[in-house]
Amino acid sequence: MKQLIKIGLCAALCASWVGTVHADAEAAVGYANAHGQYVSTGHDGCLITPRWSPEQAVEDYENGAPEFVEACHPELVPEEVVPMAPMMVQERATFATDAFFAFDSDALKPEATAKLEQLVRDMSTAQTINTIEVVGHTDSTGPADYNQGLSERRANSVRDELVNLGINPALIQARGEGENMPRASNSTREGRAENRRVDVNVEGIVEEVEEVVVEEVVVEEVTTN
Q: If residue 114 lies in a helix (H) or strand (E), which one and from where to where?
C-alpha cells in the first residue's frame, strides 16, 4: 500500500511539473522552463523540447525571451548591429571667373552652366545637403568698392543657376568677398587669375562612415585683359 502511495504521489508531482513546463513554455518556445526559469540538464546545457530549432531560438531572442538563449545557446545570440553614425562631408569646387564670365560681366557663359550641372550631379550622392555657400572673389585691380559689387553679382549669378538646376534656394548662401581673400599674390598675372574665382562649398551628410574627401575642382583659366 505504501509503495502504491509513493508511486501515485510521484506520478502526481511529475504530471504537475510537466503541466507547469508546458504552461510556461510559451515564454520561450523550444525551451523547457518552470516558473519563468530555464531547466538545466545538469551537464550539457538546457532542456529543450521537440519544437526547438536554431531558427526558433533566434526568433525567441528577438521576441521577448533573450535570457533563455543567452544562458542555453549563447552561440546563437545575434550579433548586435550598431548603425554607423552619419558623417558630415564637405566638398569645395573652385571655378575661375574668367572661364565662367566674360570680362567685367556677371552673365554666366554656356560652359559655366555645364560645370554647375556636373556639380549638382555630384551633390546628389549625399543623403542630405545642409548648406551650399557660394562666394565670389576678385583680384585687386580696380577700386575695392567696385570689386566688392562685382564679386557679389557673380556669386548671385551662380546661386540663381543652381536654383534653376533644382537646388532649394533656402540651402544656398551667396556673398561676395571682393579682393579681400586672395589665394595668391596680386603682383603677378598668374596670381591675379587665381584670385578671380567663385568658390562653392557644399556641406552635407552621408549615412555610411567613409573617409571625408575635400575635392577642389579648378576650371581651366582663360585670362582677359
A: helix 110-123
Give residue-wise pLDDT tens across range 197-220.
Answer: 999 998 877 654 444 333 444 444
Element (H, E) at 119: helix 110-123
Gap between the Cα atoms of 67 and 78, Å rounded:
13
100 and 160 in a single domain? The answer is: yes
Q: What is the Cα–Cα distance from 205 to 219, expressed in whole angstroms?
A: 26
Mark which of 15, 46, 76 sits at the end of a domain: 76
Number of structural domains the chain divides into: 2
- Domain, as residue range, for 181: 87-206
Q: What Cα–Cα distance (Å) separates residue 25 from each residue in 32, 37, 75, 195?
A: 6, 10, 21, 76
The reply to whether 91 and 28 lie within a common domain is: no
DSSP type of residue 107: S
Residues 53 and 94 reside in one and the same domain: no
Q: Give Cβ neighbours of residue 86 (< 8 Å, ≥ 6 apart).
A: 127, 205, 206, 207
What percentage of the chain reaches a pLDDT higher than 70? Answer: 69
Contact 166, 120 (CB under 8 A): yes
Q: Which three cell numbers stand for residue 176?
A: 561676395
pLDDT per residue as tens digits for the range 144-201: 999 999 999 999 999 999 999 999 999 999 999 999 999 999 999 999 999 999 999 9
Is 217 part of any domain?
no
CB 221 within 8 A of CB 99: yes
Neighbouring residues of 82: CB distance < 8 A, sequence distance ≥ 6? none
What number of other Cβ atoms are within 10 A of residue 84's Cβ? 11
